[in-house]
Amino acid sequence: MQFYYGPQMPLRILDEAEFWKHQEEEHTVVIRELVSGLEAEFVDALRQWEAALAQTHQQVIRYIESVVRSGTYVADQLHQQVLQLIAYCLEQSLLFIQLCEQIKTSSAVVASNPTAKVVLTHIIRESEYFIGIGQTLLYQQQDPPHQR
Asked: What angle do helix axes 9-34 and 76-106 make, rounded to 10 degrees?
């Protein structure tokens, strides 16, 4: 990961969130397509998550556009809104991981599908990776030195 964004660091955080929210949205489809006969409760939950992740993804894109339009100076209010959005993205990813864990441990169909277990583990790890990156960037931005 590169840390040369300087005053545009909020854009770096948003770039990561944009990529990973789109990934998580796609993962809901991957799980539904991979696990034939997945219990209806999980299919419904995954569809709801797909919509929620798509909404968050679009919100991140709107913030990217705002930061880009702000030029070399990102107003404190916008900066704080970006940090709040990223915190929300991280919380959302934690909840998505919980759903994936629940599917992995509670679905009878998944229990008999070793490939599905591997894919779910991979999806969980990817969301955990985003959380790690996001937390690192978020904590660096909580009180950025020499930028205010």
From this structure: 20
